[in-house]
Specification:
By secondary structure, this protein is α/β, with parallel strands linked by helices. Helices cover about 30% and strands about 25% of the residues. The chain contains nine helices and 13 strands. Strands 2-1-3-10-4 form a five-stranded mixed beta sheet, with helices on both faces. A five-stranded mixed beta sheet has the order 7-6-8-5-9, sandwiched between helices. Helix 1 (about 15-30) links the parallel strand 1 (about 5-10) and strand 2 (about 35-40). The longest helix has 24 residues, at about 285-305.
Length: about 300
C-alpha cells in the first residue's frame, strides 16, 4: 500500500538482482520524479538453500517469498528475472511489465578461453541446469559436466578453481555486472536454446493495483512481451513445471514472431528441436504449434514424462 509517495520495490539481495532492480528504477525515476522508490531485499528459499539441487526444489524458489510480501501489501512491486517466474502466477498477482530484453544467450567461460567445440577431452564444465547439461552433453560430448551452484561471482570463481575448468552462464548476467571479459564464447540461441524468459526482467504487481499498472506502462516493451509470452506459453503447454530439459526462444520482427523450441532427455541423447514462425499478436497459438511440432518430430515419449498418465 502506498504511503505518501513511497513505493517499496522487492528483490533478492544478490549483486545481480540489485543491479537488475536498479536497471528498472533507472527507467522509472525520470518518469516519476515525485516518487520515492525504496528497494527492499528478501531472502528466498533458493537463496537459503544454496547447495541443494535446483530442479528438486520445485517451482518459484527464487520468487515465492517475495510474492508473499507483495500479496500482503508489504511491497508495491517486485522485480524478477522472468526465467525464475513460474508460468502460472499466484492468484491476485500479475506481470505489470516486461522490460526490453538483454542478450538472451548462454555463454561459455573456461580457463583456456576457447570456444565449445575446442574444449579438450575431459574438460570439467559446471552447470546445475538440466537444459544446459543436456545441450552441453549433446554438442560437446568430450566435456565432463559437473553441478555448480551460487551467485554469478561464485560460479565464476569456482570455474577457475581446481575443481572446474569452466561453466555455462547467462550472457545477460555477465553483461549487467560488467563481466563480459570473462566470456569465452556466446552460444547461439538457435543451437544452444535458452530457457523461456532469459534476459528479460519482469515486474510483478497486484492485479487490483491500477496505480502501479499505469506507472509501469511506459517501460513495458511490447515486442519483448510478445516473445516472452510465446516462450512461457510453450513451457505451460509442457506442464509449466516439467523437469525434462526444455528451452524456448522467440524473436519478433514486427508482424512476425519466430520461435525456436528444444526438448531433450537428461543425457542429451534424444534431442528434439523445432523452428516455427507465426503472428506476433498471437504468441500462444505459435506456442501451441511448437508443442505439436515436437510431438510430430518424435518427442512424444519425452513429452509423456511431463504429462504422466493418471492411470
Amino acid at each position: 500500500m502506498l504511503e505518501n509517495n513511497l513505493i517499496k520495490v522487492g528483490t533478492r539481495a544478490s549483486a545481480l538482482a540489485l543491479r537488475q532492480t536498479e536497471e528498472v528504477l533507472e527507467q522509472l525515476r525520470p518518469l516519476n520524479p515525485g516518487l520515492d522508490f525504496q528497494v527492499v531485499t528478501v531472502r528466498t528459499s533458493g537463496d537459503i538453500n544454496a547447495s541443494g539441487s535446483l530442479p528438486g526444489m520445485g517451482l518459484g524458489v527464487f520468487v515465492k517469498e517475495i510474492e508473499r510480501e507483495l500479496l500482503d501489501g508489504t511491497l508495491d512491486m517486485a522485480i524478477h528475472s522472468l526465467k525464475d517466474m513460474p508460468t502460472l502466477l499466484p492468484e491476485g498477482l500479475s506481470l505489470g511489465a516486461t522490460l526490453r530484453r538483454q542478450d538472451p544467450r548462454d555463454v561459455l567461460v573456461d580457463r583456456w578461453h576457447c570456444p565449445l567445440d575446442r574444449l579438450p577431452q575431459g574438460a570439467r564444465i559446471g552447470t546445475s541446469s538440466p537444459r544446459r547439461r543436456a545441450q552441453l552433453m549433446n554438442l560437446c560430448p568430450q566435456a565432463e559436466v559437473l553441478p555448480i551452484r551460487g551467485s554469478v561471482d561464485t560460479r565464476l570463481e569456482k570455474s577457475k578453481s581446481n575443481d572446474y575448468d569452466g561453466a555455462i552462464l547467462a550472457a545477460a548476467g555477465l553483461i549487467r555486472l560488467g563481466l563480459t571479459g570473462e566470456i569465452s564464447e556466446y552460444l547461439s540461441a538457435q543451437d544452444f536454446v535458452p530457457p523461456p524468459g532469459q534476459g528479460v526482467l519482469g515486474v510483478e504487481i497486484r492485479v487490483d493495483d491500477h496505480r502501479m499498472q499505469r506507472l509501469l506502462e511506459p517501460v513495458d516493451h511490447v515486442e519483448t512481451r510478445y516473445a516472452a509470452t510465446a516462450e512461457r506459453a510453450f513451457l505451460e503447454a509442457l506442464g509449466g513445471g516439467c523437469q525434462v530439459p526444455v528451452g524456448a526462444y522467440a524473436q519478433s520482427d514486427g508482424e512476425s514472431l519466430a520461435l525456436t523450441v528444444f526438448l531433450s532427455s537428461e543425457d542429451g541423447q534424444q534431442c528434439f528441436k523445432a523452428n516455427l514462425r507465426g503472428n506476433t499478436h498471437d504468441p500462444k497459438q505459435l506456442a501451441s504449434d511448437a508443442y505439436l511440432a515436437l510431438v510430430e518430430a518424435g518427442g512424444s515419449e519425452l513429452l509423456d514424462q511431463t504429462h504422466p498418465n493418471p492411470d
